[in-house]
Every structure is written in C-alpha cells, then in structure tokens.
Predict the structure.
Amino acid sequence: MTRLIGIYGASGFGREVMSIAREQYSGERTEFVFIDDAGGESTSNGHAVVNWSRFLSRPAQDRCVAIAIADSRIREVLTDRCVEAGVPIRSIQAGNVWLGDAISHGEGAILQPFVSLTANVRIGRSFHANIYSYVAHDCVIGDYVTFAPRVMCNGNVRIEDRAYIGTGAILRQGTPDKPLVIGAGATVGMGAVVTKDVPPGVTVIGNPARIMEKR
Ligand code: UDP
C-alpha cells in the first residue's frame, strides 16, 4: 500500500531533482525510484533505478512521474508515454522557490532551488527552471521550455515552445506593446545577452547575442 513516485532520468539532472521530490512529497508510504531506460545501474543514491515497464509493474497503490530530463523533445515523448499509460505527471518545486502573484504553470514543471517567478507569469507544460533562474513580470512561456542555471528572464518576454536558454543568459526586458520574443525551438547560448527578438529554430550566442551561422 504505497505511493510510488518515479523521477524519469537517472542522469545528472534527475539526481538533482530526486532530493527535492523527496522533500516535497515525503510521507511514510511513499517510495521514490528513478526511471531510466538505459539499463545501467540498479540503484543510484540509494534509490532503485528501473525501466519504464518495471516502473509500471512495481507494486503500488498509486504512481506518478516527474520528468527530469533537460532535452525538450525527450520530455515530450515521455510525457505522451505517461499520458498513454494513464500515469499522472507531477511538478517538482523546491521549498525556497518564490512564486509571486498571478503565476500559472502547466503540469510537469520542475522549479529548482532559488528560482523566482515574480508576478503575472503564464507558463505552459513541462517547464524546467534550473537553480537560480528567474522569470520577471508579464512573461509568457510556452510548452517544454528549458532554462539552464541562472537564466535571467526580465519582464515582458515571450518564449515560445521548446526553446532552450543556456546558463547565465540574460534576456532583455520587453514592453507590453512589444515583448522580446524567443522563437519556438531556439537555443540561447550560455552567457548570451539577448537584446532583440530571436527567430524560431536558430542558435544565438554572445553579447549582444547574434545568430550562430552553421558551418
Ligand atoms: N532516458 C530515458 N529514456 C528515454 C530518454 C532518456 O530513460 O527515452 C534517460 C537516459 O538514459 C539518461 C537520462 O534520461 O540517463 C538523460 O540524461 P542526460 O545526461 O542526457 O540529460 P540531463 O540529465 O542533463 O537532463
């Protein structure tokens, strides 16, 4: 008669998320496991590592999953897998995350320690905000967006689906009439300073951020 919580992904990010999940959902009858399909270790940091089919057959009264894999395409595939199997997807939120007024996010968010979402922020499903990142007022963020550590997303920014924002990137503040837009599937490189809109699908780097030409 246990609740089973599976952290999908037993690599670096998954191991970071596990201790937050334990704190958030701890209870006498809760078992926490890693789900990983690579078929490697059988335990990691004291938790069993099981593949998806073993997770589904493991005895439990009810089960749920948090997907702790940075790659948005993999997150999307695994989200569909959970939905198909009728396994609910949970969000994970560190105890010291700051959520201001009028914040909403979809299922499957992972908000790591020291993340702030300040005011009037709307976010889609499966958002990952790594340590020390913030999203300031009046931002709109799509589905499967990923922030590496310490992303600074200032006010009135719109980030479209599946964009990836690298460590320490700074997104310049937009205005209510003209938000700064990061296009769908774009990648913002580590430490980039983004001062103007980024088209969908491109990679930008540097200060001020410029499109990285493919060689
Ligand atoms: N993985 C999985 N099923 C999949 C795709 C990936 O279990 O369909 C696992 C993979 O075996 C690896 C982890 O997810 O252990 C992803 O780790 P990676 O280091 O690539 O990403 P990060 O931890 O940085 O998000």
